[in-house]
């Protein structure tokens, strides 16, 4: 039924492609149906007809946000909120994007702007999320960065420096990946002379890719904890700045900070956004930023000893091929959804310290094919909530039982399949030098 409506709209647009209200309607419908990727495409298409349309720009930013294309979303929306009298929905999308990029306090400001202008935009979930994150007590050290017009440098945005208290034991499964990280970046840091003696070059980074929620960020953080190093997570959105040349300076400031804080793990999240030039970023700006990044990474001009460089992306196919050259991200590791035993390990990790009965996790692990680590976390969350409610009703802390988890399974679908739908195409049709063989192997597709 609803499918029909979309098809009809698309048909209608074929015969009158410049009917802007129709285009807007189709795009907003896709947004409402949470078909984010298609919504993104429609908004981009509509913007070709009317590039300055605020409603379209906000819609696109919304689609970016929902797909965690945070950097792209921020670049777009910040230009809007800097205008006079931006619409309240712009502030709302801005708040979500800021939250996603870890800037909870700024997110709160933006959110307050939104509901001040339009109280109907009140969103209890978002609000509690923002308040939770904005009030996290530990106040991490900040790296000052330049932002805004050059003459107002000191009102900088900033990046956090953490000392993670998790290590490889907190990451379920991934034995091979952990081993690879040990060989490639942990041992060189601990035994530099040995590596030199054998003439083994140190340097370069590891790129992690795979479906969202499967532990890329978690693993990067645990790597830092494993070697008691500082952890500097960088979202590309933290770097991007609308002023020409400023993004490159921000990037350089981050690398310099990392070099002064070694040992340290410098982690670039959604690193593909750096190269997402084409339509989204002005392409020459994108190019400059990529070159800056490669220059910092090559360590020819700078000494990167003691700085472990990890990066993650859900969309490796958008990454500029120059990143993959030797000495740069020359190890590209697929982080698949957890297999059965990893799922059990993750469930155990996440249930630690909670009141549980005689759980038959082997039953749950069998029923959670295609679940990401984040999905498993969600299952536990759902079970915990139900149990809390029951405990309050009946009095006393009731233990979580196998059937509670089974109930929860009915309420949460695995989220990794969608990623594989896209990934499969790249693995089949753009698999230069076997880059995505791991995806094909995972999907049991013979080359
Ligand atoms: N292998 C794993 N072991 C433990 N926790 C995991 C694992 N994979 C995912 N998680 C949990 O799922 C959540 C999302 O993982 P994250 O690292 O943010 O995924 P990604 O960066 O790949 O999108 C994290 O909070 C983490 O606790
Ligand atoms: Mg992540």
Strand order of the largest sheet: 4-5-6-3-7
The helix/strand class is alpha/beta
Average pLDDT, to the nearest integer? Answer: 86
**SSE string:** HHHHHHHHEEHHEHEHHEHEEHHHHHH
Mind telling me the CATH class of the largest domain?
Alpha Beta
Uncertain stretches of 5 or more adjacent residues? 137-141, 147-157, 277-281
Helical residues, percent = 40-55%
Count of distinct structural domains: 3
Instruction: Assign an overall shape.
Output: globular
End-to-end separation: 38 Å
CA radius of gyration is 23 Å
Q: Name the CATH superfamily assignment of the largest domain.
A: P-loop containing nucleotide triphosphate hydrolases
The total count of strands amounts to: 7
* Largest pleated sheet: 5 strands, parallel
């Amino acid at each position: 039924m609803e499918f029909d409506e979309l098809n009809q709209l698309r048909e209608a647009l074929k015969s009158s492609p410049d009917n802007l209200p129709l285009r807007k309607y189709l795009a907003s419908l896709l947004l409402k149906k949470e078909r984010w990727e298609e919504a993104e495409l429609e908004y981009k298409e509509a913007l070709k007809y009317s590039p300055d349309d605020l409603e379209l720009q906000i819609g696109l930013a919304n689609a970016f946000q929902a797909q965690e294309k945070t950097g792209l979303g921020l670049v777009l929306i910040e230009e809007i909120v800097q205008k006079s009298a931006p619409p309240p929905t712009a502030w709302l999308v801005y708040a979500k994007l800021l939250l996603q990029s870890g800037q909870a306090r700024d997110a709160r400001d933006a959110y307050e702007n939104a509901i001040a202008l339009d109280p109907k935009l009140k969103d209890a979930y978002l609000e509690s999320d923002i308040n939770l994150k904005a009030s996290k007590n530990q106040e991490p050290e900040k790296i000052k960065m330049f932002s805004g017009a050059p003459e107002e440098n000191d009102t900088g945005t900033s990046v956090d420096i953490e000392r993670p208290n998790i290590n490889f034991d907190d990451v379920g499964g991934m034995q091979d990946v952990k081993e690879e990280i040990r060989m490639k970046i942990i041992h060189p840091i601990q035994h530099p002379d040995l590596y030199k003696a054998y003439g083994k070059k140190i340097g370069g980074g590891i790129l992690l890719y795979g479906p969202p929620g499967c532990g890329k960020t978690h693993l990067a953080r645990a790597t830092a904890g494993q070697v008691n190093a500082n952890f500097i997570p960088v979202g590309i959105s933290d770097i991007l700045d609308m002023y020409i040349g400023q993004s490159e300076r921000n990037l350089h400031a981050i690398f310099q900070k990392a070099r002064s804080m070694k040992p340290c793990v410098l982690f670039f999240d959604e690193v593909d956004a750096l190269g997402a030039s084409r339509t989204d970023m002005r392409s020459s700006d994108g190019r400059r930023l990529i070159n800056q990044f490669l220059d910092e990474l090559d360590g020819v001009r700078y000494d990167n000893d003691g700085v472990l460089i990890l990066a993650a992306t859900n969309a490796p196919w958008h990454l500029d091929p120059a990143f993959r050259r030797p000495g740069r991200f020359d190890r590209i590791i697929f982080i698949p959804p957890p297999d059965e035993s990893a799922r059990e390990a993750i469930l155990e990790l996440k249930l630690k310290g909670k009141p549980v009965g005689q759980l038959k996790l082997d039953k749950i692990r069998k029923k959670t094919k295609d679940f990401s680590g984040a999905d498993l976390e969600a299952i536990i969350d759902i079970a915990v909530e139900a149990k809390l409610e029951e405990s309050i009703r009946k009095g006393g802390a009731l233990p979580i039982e196998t059937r509670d988890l089974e109930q929860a399974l009915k309420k949460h679908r695995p989220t990794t399949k969608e990623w594989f739908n896209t990934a499969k195409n790249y693995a089949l049709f753009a698999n230069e030098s076997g880059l995505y063989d791991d995806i094909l192997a995972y999907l049991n597709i013979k080359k």
